[in-house]
Amino acid sequence: MPDMKKAQTSLGKLRDEIDKVDLDIIRLLNKRADLAIDVAAVKRKAKLKFHSPEREREVLEKVSSCNKGPFPNDALKFIFREIISASLSLEEPLKVAYLGPEGTFTHLAALRHFGSSAGYLPVQSIRAVFDAVESDKANYGLVPIENSNEGIVSYTLDMFMDNELKISAEVLLEVTHHLLSLSGDIKKVKKIYSHPQALAQCKRWIETNMPGVPVLEATSTAKAAELAAKHADSAAIASELSARLYDLKFIEKRIEDNKHNMTRFLVISREFPKRTKKDKTSIMFSLQHKPGSLYDSLTPFEKAGINLTKIESRPSRRKAWEYIFFVDLEGHIDDEKVKKAIDKVKKSCLFLKHLGSYPSHERPDSD
Q1: Catalytic position from the list 105, 130, 265, 301
Q2: How do beta strands 191-194 and 234-238 pair?
Q3: Active site residue 130
Q4: Which residue among 218, 231, 245, 286 is least packed, with the fewest CB closer than 10 Å?
Q5: Tell me: the pLDDT tens digits for 266-314?
Q6: What is the mean pLDDT of residues 4-23?
Q7: Between the CA atoms of 76, 114, 263 and 265, what dihedral angle is there, to the nearest 10 degrees?
Q8: Among 3.30.110.30, 3.30.70.260, 3.10.580.10, 3.40.50.2300, what is the CATH number of 273-366?
Q9: CATH 3.40.190.10 domain range(s) in the chain
Q10: Burial class (CB in 10 A: 0-12, 13-18, 19+), 363
Q11: pLDDT above 60 (res 123)
């Protein structure tokens, strides 16, 4: 019994210390918020833009490099992204258009990149995302570009052909599917809703664990969650965000057949950011239809020692058998060797367009 009392006394003292630290955190967050308001006043007077991606990256990099304690680095970066997002909302809330509806993986990627305090505009198509940014209804747009299992999102590439918006960032998101319902009881499920792509990615799990249960297609995983929230005998295959938005319970987590399913998203805006320590550049170009033309056009990159991370081709839609090539390469357009190589490539092209230079997102498996 004395040991129990001693432990309770120690716990009480430690919890008192934690409470004091929590109060200090609140005080410092409000002090930071006051400074953010002062920053906004200076920017407004000088007519400077409110959002600075470079400053945001600088803060997050400093957080990573200065963290010497036991608190997980990824968690700390997530917290600071939310702090930055909330601070920006005190200056002037960012407006972000994304391929909706709410609860989709694109919505989740937007939240991961911009934080929950940004103003979000869900739209019905990839074209509508581009239109929202181009018409100044949104500061940024977020669209899917490729999935590690399903490949490239062709329509996103097509939009860059006739659009002058730039790629200003990329977001990599691990796609995890969960089986959700109102009750969380698998025995009560009489039908399952989801988007065709999600159903295909969970096919083996469904066949093994829920044979004979009807599977119905929905326009999105978020719509599937909405339907499951209306019918007690239904389940949805959807994201964790959908579970929160529609107040659904988890029947089973991570039911995707491939546990290494990643989707890459692009952030589009009217300008691209300044050079960082690790950048990626995207270009598109068209070539004459003759043997060796692609090889010849890519040779300057090989000679300059520039790594190409992706090459995709699409019909140009302007002329039969004419193709547009999309290339991602390591480096920034302001890097001397990148600029020189692209200038040489341009000489062998019918046309070449710089789509953007932006920070390269570290892949999760590189940690």
Answers
A1: 265
A2: parallel
A3: no
A4: 231
A5: 999 988 888 888 899 999 998 877 777 888 888 999 999 999 999 988 8
A6: 86
A7: -140
A8: 3.30.70.260
A9: 95-175, 179-252
A10: exposed
A11: yes
Architecture of domain 2-91: Up-down Bundle (1.20)
Q: How confident is the model at residue 106 (pLDDT cuts 50, 70, 90)?
A: very high
Residue 35 identity (one-letter amino acid): L
Which amino acid does the sequence have at 14?
Answer: L
Three-state DSSP class for residue 252:
strand
Residue 354 — very low, low, confident or very high, per pLDDT cuts 50/70/90? very high
Q: What is the mean pLDDT of the segment spanning 321-350?
A: 90
> Could you give phi then psi for residue 148, rounded to 5 degrees?
-65, -25
CA separation for the pair 345, 298 (Å, rounded): 7
- What integer best gives the mean pLDDT of the chain? 87
Dump the DSSP string for 134-195: HTTS-SEEEEEEEETTTEE-HHHHHHHHT---EEEEEEEEE---EEEESS--GGG--EEEE-
CATH class of 95-175: alpha beta
Q: What are the φ/ψ torsions at residue 133 (nearest 5 degrees)?
A: -75, -40
Q: Which residues are CB-contacts of 153 (< 8 A; sequence separation ≥ 6)?
A: 126, 143, 144, 145, 146, 147
Topology of domain 179-252 in CATH is D-Maltodextrin-Binding Protein; domain 2 (3.40.190)
- Considering the candidates 130, 263, 281, 285, report the single residue annotated as catalytic: 263
Active site residue 285: no
